[in-house]
Design a protein that fits this description.
Blueprint: H1 2-26, H2 29-32, E1 38-42, E2 48-51, E3 55-56, E4 77-82, E5 88-91, H3 92-97, E6 101-108, E7 113-124, H4 125-132, E8 140-145, E9 150-154, H5 155-158, E10 164-169, E11 172-173, E12 183-185, E13 198-204
Parallel strand pairs: 3-7, 4-13
Antiparallel strand pairs: 1-2, 4-5, 6-7, 7-10, 8-9, 8-13, 10-11, 10-12
Helix pairs in contact: 1-4
Length: about 230
């Protein structure tokens, strides 16, 4: 009964949070662009399957800052703080006790490759947001990785159902090379918007540029607008 009550509270909080951002989410280019750039069949969001300038790959290239932190499940923690009512630090056990989501989505890297139909498992960002109850002032997040990487997202993008913090890819534990034990994925944006080896989610009242955004990459990163650089 206690677990069901906890789940009901998370779901209720998630729905209220999504309702708060529903209008902004519906207007984002990855779901509302009338002239998206790309080719192929139409995906579930109404966009062409392959964004402009991308090529399909079966392999999963490894890209990082030259440092791959090795974080055990015992040592991994996720801090969620900033403009929230209830900041929290989750252990691996806490994280795995949250509602688990499975999804299949595409992964678009700004370096021009796309890996299609990847099966994922993890926790929805929206459920994590529901746990901490963002203040009315919260408009953006800054994600931090154990490798000191950072990247920014607006809440209307982060709260979409397919934005997950994943621990499983291709039906096996997420490999260290790809950000394991946990990374964030952002299927409707270029993949650099999802931090590998994620360690902290900081809610912000104003936008703050992350590692690549400070170095000339796009603040918004919409694949179907070929929106790679600022």
């Amino acid at each position: 009964m206690e677990e069901n009550s906890k789940l009901d509270k998370i779901v209720d909080a998630r729905m209220k949070l999504k309702a708060r951002f529903e209008q902004q989410m519906a207007l984002t280019p990855s779901v509302s662009d009338l002239r998206p750039m790309g080719t192929g069949e139409i995906n579930r969001h109404g966009m062409p399957k392959l964004p402009a300038g991308q090529v399909r790959t079966e392999k999963w290239p490894v890209l990082d800052l030259g440092f791959k932190p090795e974080i055990s499940h015992q040592k991994w923690k996720l801090v969620i703080d900033g403009e929230v009512e209830s900041p929290i630090t989750l252990s691996w056990e806490d994280f795995m006790a949250l509602p688990q989501a499975e999804d299949v989505s595409d992964f678009h890297c700004v370096t021009t490759w796309s890996r299609m139909d990847v099966p994922w498992a993890g926790v929805r960002f929206s459920d994590l947001a529901a746990l901490v109850q963002p203040k009315a002032s919260a408009k953006h997040i800054l994600c931090h990785g154990y490798d000191k990487y950072t990247t920014n997202l607006s809440l209307e993008e982060a709260l979409k159902d397919d934005v997950l913090l994943v621990h499983t890819a291709d039906n096996k534990p997420l490999e260290r090379d790809h950000g394991g034990p946990v990374r964030m994925i952002t299927p409707q944006l270029y993949a650099w918007k999802g931090s590998k080896w994620i360690s902290r989610i900081e809610f912000l009242s104003a936008n703050k540029l992350g590692f690549w955004e400070l170095r000339g990459y796009s603040n918004t990163a919409y694949p179907w607008r070929n929106d790679r650089y600022s």
